[in-house]
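Hey, can you fold this?
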Amino acid sequence: MIGLSVAVGRFVEALFWAIFRVAGVVAGIAILSVLGMAAAWVIGRRIWKRKR
């Protein structure tokens, strides 16, 4: 019975860390995409000002 309890505990812990890993990757992608859009907007404004 103790072995089963340890196995369930390890499974829950692995699931917990996997969820946090996925959440971290999603947050990282979101932050990088926002930074990329901001950089593209700034570069686009500079190009637009140069054409005028």
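Oh, and this one too while you're at it.
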Amino acid sequence: MSLVTTLAKFLGKCLGGLVAVAVTCYLLLLTVNWQDEAASERALDLKRQLTLKPVSNNGYQLYTTQLAQLGSAAIPELQQLFSDCYQAGCQSLLQAETETLQQLLAQQQQLLAAYQQWLATEHWQEPLLVSTDLPAYQPLLNGQRLQLLQAYLAARQGDSELAQQLLAADLQFWRKLLPQNRYLVSKMISVAAIEQHFLFASAINQSLTDGERPRPAIWQQPFSPAELSLELALAGEWQLSEQLIAKGLNESSELKLLQRLGVTLLKPLYQAQASSNERALLLSCEAGGQQAIAPWYHWAYNPVGKMLNRASKVPCAQYLSRLERLEQSRQQLVSAG
């Protein structure tokens, strides 16, 4: 028997042995993953939070309806005026000519009127999403900039009462949104809008005399635990992850043959409810998202779900830190005024 033949037989046996080991391991994994878990209390709690009670005067619904009419085009002149509010104290805005600002407001009356309609709504109830398609938020943020610009012009012209009313309405609106946002993206948009409000207010107050400075009563109100909580937004993220994973596992018709085979083999190693339970625990941001230390072999149960959960882990500390800074910014604004 030649050396080549002997080597080929040896490699064949090795390959056959590896296949046998792989099949045995896969069958063992199938046995371990034979049954899914029951829903955990944490998962049930997140589900309860997402129960939609229809509301009237829903600002979100009004916004999405009017969005088609308003369009989502940028307003370069407006964005330029506010571009340095985070670094240089809104100098572009403060140095602009009054006539220039008035012309810009006159050109954007439709958006400003729509924004003031949104401010007047009682609720902001976002629907439960089945994909990551969110509406464009640029018109909403541009509407805020127009509102702040109108407040600045009123203050510059000596009408501090009107400036105060406009600022109060703006901050009241965004603080109303904070505890109602169902997703991290929309929650952080609300945070960004409140940050812009405080930075703008600090800048214009420095440019006015003490008697001219607007002082809305809402600036004196500390942020509540509900406003600074991520709980509802995390419940929304939990539900959206459920939808996206289910969609990814069930829609394999467009995949190539080997990819479909891989998905078919992996599906039994994904336990939907066990994954949901673990994801709910990982999304316990206010409690630190801590889990008991598990033995290494815990990965044998629901390995696909565990990997998916780790891949989409939420950086809780970053989000909570940014929320906490809102109260610090409010206090700084009040103390400076």
